[in-house]
């Protein structure tokens, strides 16, 4: 019986980057960008206070979300994100995003989304997005099914309002994201030898 190949969680982080860029997020560190990765939040006292003592392993250590999307002007958390390498670990990523990272943010007075990403490629991955409605975490849906993408900034701002519906419609990505994707598709078609006809 062949051994199961190990997959490093860093591959899930690469996928996370692709998913964020595809929705127009700037994955650079603030103030230039919107994303804090792992230990980077510890440079911001208000976020350090939020995650202090909330390690998913217990023992009173600090929490370590995969990433935190922030408003680069206020440094307020917009979304906490946990990523796992295996799609089968989606439930673990959901629990960690909501309970270990999202709940401490809510307790501190913030209203971020909790996002779980599992998998390592665009072909094989799962995403679950949750919003706090003032009482519990609700899955964000499209046509009553959980969405499979990370919302863009405008959608996150709307979803963060506790009384806003958790139903979401896909929105058109910004023109620069569409242009980048079009360039990528054109390159792939040329490399594959696909002709216009």
Structural topology:
Blueprint: H1 9-22, E1 35-37, H2 45-51, E2 67-70, E3 77-84, H3 90-107, E4 113-121, E5 124-132, E6 137-139, E7 141-142, E8 145-146, H4 153-159, H5 175-191
Parallel strand pairs: 3-4
Antiparallel strand pairs: 1-2, 2-3, 4-5, 5-6, 7-8
Any overview of this molecule?
- The chain has 197 residues and is α+β, with helices and mostly antiparallel strands.
- It is 32% helix and 20% strand.
- The strands form two sheets. It has a six-stranded mixed beta sheet, with helices on both faces.
- The chain is globular, with a radius of gyration of 18 Å.
- It starts with 8 loop residues before the first helix and ends in a 6-residue tail after the last helix.
Question: What would the keywords be for this entry?
Answer:
single chain; 197 residues; alpha+beta; six-stranded mixed sheet; two-stranded antiparallel sheet; 5 helices; 8 strands; globular
- What's the shape? globular
In spatial order, strands of the major sheet run 1-2-3-4-5-6
- Backbone CA Rg: 18 Å
Oligomer: single chain
Unreliable stretches covering 5 or more consecutive residues: none
Distance between the termini: 47 Å
Percent strand = 15-25%
Tell me the structural class: alpha+beta
Helix content: 25-40%
The number of strands is 8
Mean pLDDT: 86
């Amino acid at each position: 019986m062949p051994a199961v190949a190990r997959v490093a969680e860093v591959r899930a982080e690469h996928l996370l980057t692709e998913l964020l860029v595809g929705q127009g997020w700037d994955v650079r560190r603030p103030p230039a960008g919107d994303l804090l990765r792992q230990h980077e939040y510890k440079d911001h006292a208000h976020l350090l206070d939020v995650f202090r003592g909330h390690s998913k392993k217990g023992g009173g250590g600090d929490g370590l979300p995969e990433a935190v999307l922030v408003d680069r002007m206020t440094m307020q958390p917009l979304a906490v994100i946990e990523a796992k390498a295996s799609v089968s670990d989606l439930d673990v990523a959901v629990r960690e995003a909501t309970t270990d990272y999202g709940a401490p943010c809510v307790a501190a007075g913030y209203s971020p989304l909790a996002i779980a990403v599992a998998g390592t490629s665009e072909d094989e991955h799962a995403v679950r997005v949750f919003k706090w409605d003032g009482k519990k975490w609700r899955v964000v849906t499209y046509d009553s099914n959980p969405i499979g993408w990370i919302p863009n900034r405008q959608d996150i701002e709307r979803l963060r309002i506790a009384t806003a519906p958790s139903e979401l419609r896909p929105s058109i990505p910004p023109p620069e994201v569409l242009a980048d994707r079009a360039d990528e598709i054109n390159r792939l078609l040329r490399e594959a030898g696909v002709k216009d006809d």
